[in-house]
Amino acid sequence: MSGHGYEKGRLDLPFVGISTFGKNPYVDDWDNINADVAVLGAPFDFGTQWRSGARFGPRAIREASTLFSFGHGGAYDFEDDVTYLPADEVKIVDLGDADIVHTDTINSHKNIEFGVRKILDAGALPVVLGGDHSINIPCINAFSDQEPIHLVQIDAHLDFVDERHGVKYGHGNPMRRAAEKDYVTGLSQIGIRNVSSTAKEGYEDARSMGSDIISVRHFRKLGHESVLDRIPKGVRYYVTIDIDGFDPSIAAGTGTPSHGGFLYYEILEFLDGLAQRGDIVGLDLVEVAPDYDHTGSTAVLAAQILMNTIGRIMHYRK
Predict the structure, then answer these.
(1) pTM
(2) Sign of the C-alpha dihedral, residues 41, 284, 36, 108?
(3) How confident is the model at residue 6, as a pLDDT?
């Protein structure tokens, strides 16, 4: 498009082109990841105990993320007077998905772990799109040769079941599996509420294994700054966000919705503060099951919270 006063080049609107995360470059050579941030899909949902469908989460989040790709060279936030993710300073790539082997949890998880390790080896920030919450297990496994991490979980459910009918790697187990790692120094479990999938003994075990459990009502009574004060300062954080931590009025597209959840700005302000408090070195967002929300709002929420969190991580690292 030249002449007639038009800008040169393509307009490349969000609905045009291939749906990589934020319409960032696709990299299929995982031995040559040259980026600050690498996005990996983990379309695995065999760990669910009720409604499946989170295997389609990565595709839905990627498509929704194109909304935030207007080509302005970054994302200007007028409230903060900051342009986040400036194109000349932050390079994001999309690695596609880990290979999922149907009905095979162990090998599917190994493939996810392999991808996260490749990202860490490249010195990039891993951002993993689930999938059900069991995909956090291989994500945390991938940090075994890294410096210690403190795990921060946004979720309606504690996910601290040890073993149920022989199942140790489902979406009710990930925080228990993480707490067993000697390089996970503690857990902050935020948003836990109502009738949980974990029995009372699980809560007792979680506290005895170094977990601080905060409900949505606790969070609102304390305020996000007081909640941040309960989290160790100046350490490395791994953040895992279950979309059902948000209220189903804004996040209906998930397998196990629980009323009484967070709203967008509550978590954005919390994650902004966390990114200033220490170094977020890993991030996953799980349990988006788009077929339960035909408006697409759940996937948009997921993409928006990820984009804004990545932006703040990179901004405060400067």
Answers:
(1) 0.96
(2) negative
(3) 52
